Amino acid sequence: KYVMVDMQLDKALIFEDDVHFQTNFKRRLMRLMEEVEQVELDWDIIYLGRKKVNLEEEVAVENVRNLVYADYSYWTLSYAISLQGAQKLLNAEPISKMLPVDEFLPIILQALHHLFTNGSSAVN
């Protein structure tokens, strides 16, 4: 039912069915995740593509290129999720709230440690 949590997967990538990958997606993602691991960043979700809602500048994640602490966002084109992030989302019981994931994630993530790639997105 909850594959990631049941199998205790450390992290997973989630892609919407309408995501369009840039030609350098894999290389950029691997570099990003290497930097996240090098700085031992504690993270729940890393947006790989989203629509930023607020125009204000977001706070950069120190020592990780192209990563910010994300404000409220629309569209969950793709994201990486950690095991602890998946457990936090499940603990919020999203199925009982019946919100589309594009709306649920931004709401719940305001209370969680969440990140987003800054600048040009790895996906369109």
TrEMBL record:
One Pfam short name: Glyco_transf_25
InterPro entries the record matches: Collagen_mod_GT25, Glyco_trans_25
Top-level division of the source organism's lineage: Eukaryota
UniProt domain Glycosyl transferase family: residue ranges: 4-104
Name this polypeptide is given: Glycosyl transferase family 25 domain-containing protein
Species of origin: Sinocyclocheilus rhinocerous
